[in-house]
Amino acid sequence: MFNALVLRKDESFSARIDSLSEESLPEGDVSAQVLYSTLNYKDALAITNTAPVVRHWPMVAGIDGSGVVLTSDSPEWRVGDAFIHNGWGLGETRWGLLSERARLESKNLVHLPTGLSAMQAMAIGTAGYTAMLSVMALERHGLRPDSGEVLVTGASGGVGSVAVALLSSMGYAVVASTGKLNESDYLMALGATAVMDRAELSGASTRPLQKERWAGVVDSVGSHTLVNALAQTRYGGAVSACGLAQGFDLPATVMPFILRGVSLLGIDSVMAPMPMRVQAWERLSKELDLLKLERMTQVIALEQVIDTAHALRQGLLKGRVVVKVS
Known about the structure:
The chain is an alpha/beta fold and 326 residues long. The chain folds into 2 domains: 2-112 and 296-324, Medium-chain alcohol dehydrogenases, catalytic domain (Quinone Oxidoreductase, Chain A, domain 1, Alpha-Beta Complex); 127-266, NAD(P)-binding Rossmann-like Domain (Rossmann fold, 3-Layer(aba) Sandwich), CATH 3.40.50.720. It has helices at 41-47, 118-141, 158-169, 184-190, 199-202, 223-232, 255-259, 274-287, 290-295, 305-313; strands spanning 2-9, 13-20, 30-38, 59-60, 64-72, 82-86, 101-104, 110-111, 150-152, 174-178, 194-197, 214-219, 233-241, 263-266, 297-301, 320-324. The strands form 3 sheets. Strands 3, 5, 6, 7, 8, 15 and 16 form a 7-stranded mixed β-sheet that branches. Strand 13 (233-241), helix 7 (255-259) and strand 14 form a beta-alpha-beta unit. Helix 1 (41-47) crosses helix 10. The radius of gyration is 20 Å and the shape is globular.
């Protein structure tokens, strides 16, 4: 028997820690002990039942995790191998990793990079991996440290915190946008060169083109914030869009695209191909300052996840939340 955070929706919704049997696990060619998971914004939406994240019921929550292989029918994985798993429908269509045990598809696993512990991997988690995918997309577009200022929206959140720390470690001048100006010292410690109030970006704008400022943008907010970021991006610059904390709408015009050659780069962390995933995790293991990662991370127990999910949904947290599962 093992413990897991189970979401059910029969006559009413429930989220609770249950004791489950090994026989209840889904099919897969690898069984694993989960050591650490995380609490992401998508997890919070599912656990608080405030968005239709879960597609099949009952569902074990947790879109990512790290741990060790217990049994394997795959030639690519041996007993004792350390892994990372994120995306591929975990916590949505397939049982997730806020669970002491899991059965997984080996084709979806990433080997834990040298230099990262299982806990550090989940301090990075899907949020940090998404931040890395965003930076890689901007680099492919031509962004370099000498290109100019890079804006990070939602900077005190999980994706934003890692993006600020990662970009600053890579030599970029990072401006952090946040609704928590009391966290300015926290963001400056992560490497931001300046902090701005999100109110400067979050309102509806009647100006499709604004003063050019940003060479690149990592946006995890969407809606009016993304629209204003696009309108302020310099000629030939790019914006990576990876979240919708403000909303999934985009009340914009084509003006930034056709008059300034601005590019909008969509970032999908769930179904990203394996070579891109491996590259992202390898780069994170080498280019992210682990002292900054530690500064932005808090660790909780599995039993604390439900209350913490409500706090995250209400915008009361900063940085990354790691869940010690086993």
